[in-house]
Amino acid sequence: MTPLVKHYGSLFHLAATFYLIPCTYNYRENRFGIFWRNTFAFVLMFTIYSSFLWFDIIAIKVSFKFMSMVMLGIMVLYVLTSAFMPIAFALNSLYHREQYVQLFDFLFARDDVILQCSTIRPTTPAMHHRDNLKTLSVFVILNCIYNVMYIAEPNILKLYWISLLRFSELFLMVELHRACANVIKDRMEQLQVLLMNVRNNDTASVEFIVHIFVERFQRYHHLIDSVNQCFSVPLTHILLLILLERTVASYDVYDNFYLLNNMSQWEMTGFLFRQLWTLIYMVVVFMIAVTSSLSSSQVEETALCTRHFDDYRLQNTRAAKQIQKFLLKNLHQKKKFSACGFFDIDNTVIYMVFSSIVTYLVILIQFKQLETDLTQSEGVFNVTSNLTTPGPS
């Protein structure tokens, strides 16, 4: 068992249980594989996820009683997006099951001894990952307390429990993507150190190290495509859900702004908790964007470091030709993490999400004002009609 599998073991176990990934680690063969329990997990989870749709329909029916048409429309869209998210995760994992096995085998199940020996700096993503899982546990406990204390309607309470489960799956999926991006980033850092420390070696060793550098770079560079293939659909769905979640939360603030003074301390506490909870979704956006951006930047930096590689002993050698081909192929071929090819997943995602939330919030406010104006106009029309209607002669 490799150190990475040991550190990320709890994440892999939870993800396989919810069928976020279609494979589990085989400790006897030291590799990832698809086994009968993975098939059973898919059937079980898909059945459970599908049954949850009934609770979403009930919640939408209940919402008709106390929500305006504008808020109801955005809530229906949000609930449906949230409802189909775990189903989309499961189907995506089933469809890309072979790609998942190959990706996790290359990144986590195989020790790259040469690269690990090239640097003595320990890697830290796994420690951050453990802290993130502990943070998730705290969030789940706090949300459970809120649900018990503030939600009185039984059907709405069931929907809140289901939403909490979906949020946990969302968080785990993001952690899986970040784990892959962090491992690629660490490997690229190790490749850079390996190439920078090559000058003190003899010519034969230099040629061997250059060969290792080019081969390993192409391998991990190609794995970015595999990560995009496996995670594009889940990340696109997650970003759409976060966009709707923050739009609903922002509209909730606008809709209740003039009622804050009339709220009791108990109601104010619940309102503030709801807003703080939805801010967690923006933290998730930052986690996705920053991790992917740092990994992509490290890949580009590792490719650029070959421009400064100039050893007179390698003139007119195979190693020199390899470096030249490498430069021609990779310097102008920037590969980034993306969501189905629609947009790159980097720091620009943060701006994209924020700007979209503001845009949709303005549209919702305009619809709300239009709805209010129409209601008032109907009231004035009814009063005018009553005043102008002639009485009986």
Outline, from the CA principal axes?
elongated
Element string (H = helix, E = strand): HHEEHHHHHHHHHEEH
Amount of beta strand: under 5%
Distance between the termini: 98 Å
Please indicate the count of domains. 1
SS content category: mainly alpha
Can you summarize the main beta sheet? Answer: 2 strands, antiparallel
Count the E strands: 4
- H/I helix tally: 12
How confident overall, as mean pLDDT?
80
Radius of gyration: 27 Å
Sequence stretches where pLDDT stays below 50 over 5 or more residues:
none
Strand order of the largest sheet: 1-2
Overall helicity: over 70%
Structure, explained:
The chain is an all-alpha fold. The protein has one domain (3-119, 127-373). Helices cover 77% and strands 3% of the residues. The chain has a two-stranded antiparallel sheet. Strands 3-4 form a two-stranded antiparallel ribbon. Strand 1 (24-26) and strand 2 form a beta hairpin. The longest helix is centred in the middle third of the chain and has 54 residues, at 203-256. It is elongated, with a radius of gyration of 27 Å. The N and C termini lie far apart (98 Å).
